[in-house]
Specification:
With 149 residues, the chain is mainly beta. Helix content is 9%, strand content 46%. The two termini are 21 Å apart.
Length: 149
Amino acid sequence: MTRLLAPFLATIITGLPVAAQTVAECDWRAAAQALPEPWEAYTRTFANGAIRMAVMDVIEPAAGPMHLLVLSPPLDETGGRQCRIISLQDTFGFAGLRLDLAQASYDPARGLAVSVPATRWLSDSDSYLDGTLTTTINQATGEIFAWMD
């Protein structure tokens, strides 16, 4: 329930339009062949290496092929991190993600917040809109929220 309310509350508090993004368990969008080359340019670590993010480019649909991969605590019983994939909506991705320009901050009550410049396709006007994809990751609880403004 909290996961669904976070973007709504952000809209009320800031008065700005906020669109909730889809955070799902990793699937075909997280396959290694979707990591663009050079790999170093499309992946970053945060929280002293405990959290890794990577841009995934699944090629199609051309207007939204990019997704954001998140590997983060809590660890499972074998020591592996949880794996989540963030998409614009369902399995439709972003037109662009600039992980190289990401900005991170930490709030002990919410966790790590990473803001990534992102571009999304607007189907109703067949145009593109630049904005910021913000993802919060709580390492203790494993909760991940994502929204774009």
